[in-house]
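BUG-569 | component: ligand-complex export | severity: low

The export step for iron/sulfur cluster jobs runs without errors, but we want the raw record kept on the ticket for reference. Input record follows.
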Amino acid sequence: MSATEAPKLSKNEDLKENSNYLRGTILEGLADVSTGAISADDGQLTKFHGIYQQDDRDVRNERRRQRLDKAYSFLIRVRVPGGICTPQQWLEMDRLSDENANGTLKLTTRQAFQFHGVIKSNLKQTIKEINDSLLDTIAACGDVNRNVMCNPNPFQSDVHAEVYELSKAISEHLTPNTRAYHEIWLDGEKVASTEEDVEPIYGKTYLPRKFKIVVAVPPSNDVDIFAHCLGFIAIVKDGKLVGFNVTVGGGMGMTHNNEKTYPRLADLLGFIKPEDAVKVAEAVVITQRENGDRSDRKHARLKYTVEDMGLDAFRAEVEQRSGVILEEAKPYTFDSTGDRYGWTEGTNGKWNLTLFIEGGRVRDTESYPMKTGLREIAKIHDGDFRLTANQNLIIGNVSKEKKALVDKLAAEYGLERGFKSSGLRLNSIACVALPTCGLALAESERYLPELVTELESVIEECGLHDDAIVIRSTGCPNGCGRPYLAEIGLVGRSPGKYNLYLGAGFAGDRLNKLYRESLTHDQIVAEVTPIIKRYAKERESGERFGDFTIRKGYVKPVKVAKTDWWAAN
Ligand code: SRM
Ligand code: SF4
């Protein structure tokens, strides 16, 4: 390549360009009954419609031996801006998961629902019924802005209501315009061949990579604002929202042994007034559209654009595009990333019950009919359901009249059992991983509960039952459970082996760092147990586990991700 020649665009760029605004041959693929799969190219495009092709990895080898096709099915991700839905919508998701998916509902780390195991012939009907319930799946995945997150903050209802409206407005404003979604899934009218779709924000090739936005109201950082491309930190004065600190350039994904990749925490860009938020969001998205790397998908996220442009140049371009001058960021304090369990009263006099949903998986088992219990609550509930960024659930805005009934049902179905769990379990997140995730190198959702159970014996022995310690696992380094912001982070390397990371900030404001590589379960327990014991004995008053592991020299703090992440301890 000559010095002036532009780098070759990645394959996905051609695919988007030639897809006629995300249509590709999806319709034809759906009509082909000779296979339960769709083509690889269409598989890239259906992501923009909220759909991933997967196969059951538990049976993959056996089927290969029997020379059978993979057991294909699809994941559908439902967007829930701000994580809030109605009891009726909950009931619909519950029904669809039984009738069209694998009988479970997954609450994700980005406040969305996922259905797993939807077969091709059921895809269209499922998407239609999701839309009938007034939720949708467009842009739940793909190189566009995804579900806009907003912290549920049940105990700060006034400001929450305002920032929630903002998260919906941003979500709406950045939803792709293409009519392909309606055409393919909702039998919308076909666009005449002479009439082009218009995507004023995205253009024909959309963004170089996925894009994520969150809104947070301090002191709760339950949305992990620094892990996302773009964030808005609500600045509240005398109980009133006065504006937002804008953050840019966060992201978790990295690749083992590839030092050009790294997780990165977002930087503070500056302060804006509430009325400028949508304008600034659009300008940040367009700045990424114009400057993001379209030749290397491993270097295409906004975090690398910010790193490569430099924060000042990035800010200047956002100001020029939005016409908004960012002021100096205002002081704020985050105190934790966890959820506040149990009942809390909102400032509106309504009640909220936060429940622990391990791994975000809503299902019934013989000993724990969780899904049925939530369904029974949804049938009588007059408030809302709020999905949290920790994969948990809030029965929100319960009226005084209904509180006793909700409480009774929660007790009857054992939904409050989580409250007795250790602070370690209550602060755990596990990504899905096997058997559905095509990228998993190791177990996660099916593994972390078991590891926590084992670590709980030392936790109990040391009297740390009520101490919140953030532990997160993922089956690969992509970081879907935000493991690099965990005080104890486990990241899959290969079947049964994990990298162990230590030292993240409890409030989600410092990355952790690699402590040990490729550990088996027994080795993880052997490594972590003495650190927990020492923590119980030697911690300073109020000292968090992550801070302790740094103070005691287990790992060095990560200050600048680009240089510190891969540096030796
Ligand atoms: Fe994720 C890809 C699941 C949140 C970073 N993620 C995937 C896929 C779709 C695998 C694939 O591409 O084939 C996983 C589907 C598994 C399955 O069977 O369900 C998957 N991600 C999830 C969820 C369901 C994890 C969970 O257990 O809750 C979360 C869904 C969120 C949502 O509702 O939209 C989920 N993913 C995240 C997060 C956390 C967040 O955003 O707060 C991250 C890290 C933050 C970030 O984006 O940097 C994340 N997922 C990734 C990446 C790495 C991106 C990168 O920059 O390198 C991939 C792979 C990719 O994009 O190439 C990925
Ligand atoms: Fe799959 Fe990896 Fe994401 Fe876990 S972190 S869901 S294994 S892509």
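Assignee comment: Attached the raw record above. The chain has three domains: 148-181+188-338, 342-421, 424-564.
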